[in-house]
Amino acid sequence: MGTENKSETKPYDRPSELKAFDETKSGVKGLVDSGITKVPRIFIQPQDSPDRVTTTPRNIGLSIPIIDLDGVDKDPIKYKDMVDKIRDASETWGFFQVVNHGIPESDMEEIKNGVSRFFDQDNEIRKQYYTRDATKPVVYNTNFDLFTGIAANWRDTVYCIMSPNPPKPEELPAACREIQMKYSKQIMGLGCTLFKLLSEGLGLKPNHLLDLECAEGLAMIFQYYPPCPEPELTIGAGKHSDNSFLTVLLQDQIGGLQVLHQNQWVDIPPTPGALIVNIGDFLQMMSNDKYKSIEHRVLSNHLGPRISVASFFTTGPRPSSKLYAPIQEMLSEENMPKYCAFTVKEYTDHFRTKGLNGVSPLLHFKL
Ligand code: OGA
Ligand code: NI
Q1: For a substitution probing ligand 1, which of 142, 222, 235, 308 has the most ligand atoms within 8 Å of its CB?
Q2: Which domains does the chain have, with CATH numbers?
Q3: How many CB atoms are located within 10 Å of the residue 88 CB?
Q4: Keyword annotations for this protein (predicted)?
Q5: How far apart are CA 69 and CA 73, in angstroms?
């Protein structure tokens, strides 16, 4: 009998296979670089998983709104229109794209190039950043929930908290440090604009969400989805909602991002120059479910690598004592609070322990 069959007759020791994979410190990219032609079983979605790619119907006729931010600071009539469009999108889709957002396309290209350079550099240099210690300034690993998830995702990740107290430039990988510092400042600026528009959409004064410190923390995540030999068996990022106030996502031209809308998966097609914005769990909770933090996922693909840069407004796992709860000004006899108060850290810890299992961590905090 050949060696191939031997591995099939051996009992499946998942924990040790996960450990061996983690110890390579080379992630999914390392597997692909080694020339594998089959998806190892630690990545295979069980038949009954919500992330079997065929489980839910796909709607190919719909797409998320595209909102033009041109003139946001200058034209009050356009501004009012943007508030309305963003509110509608946040209530129905939880997702929209923005164009003319002020971040030059050349910088958007350069940050994706920086991610490519990080992953393409010598394995030994990349490995120096590999860790599961969330207190490190740069956390490069694969599957933050590798040991708790049902099936590993076909994805590697670099995580950095860029605000408050950004890492020293020399702590960031040389492959991307310059553009990462620049791009994170640009995203902070765009975030301020978006939080003002979103505040007004809730009938609050423009600075309400900013005063609640929604834009204090920025966690930046580089997602790297290597090409996959059997994309139907696994998934790039399993169904989840974002554990942030708000997320701004830059995706490349490969595609595969989908959002759940009326129980159907809807593609979010790559749109040159656009950034994707989505409501996170915190804004859903603070708006008492008016804005929706909607589940989304990323399919894996024969083509790749696919690169995305996700900017999460949140302080993540950093110690925090500020409690967040449904916004008082929005509550009434007819709109009683649906959630108890919690800190960003409590929520993040819960999210991390639970992993991307398709169940909203918000349910844990419902009254
Ligand atoms: C995320 C996410 C989508 C993508 O990082 O939370 O949903 O396209 N990313 O990488
Ligand atoms: Ni997400």
Answers
A1: 308
A2: 34-365 (2.60.120.330)
A3: 14
A4: Iron, Metal-binding, Oxidoreductase, Vitamin C
A5: 9
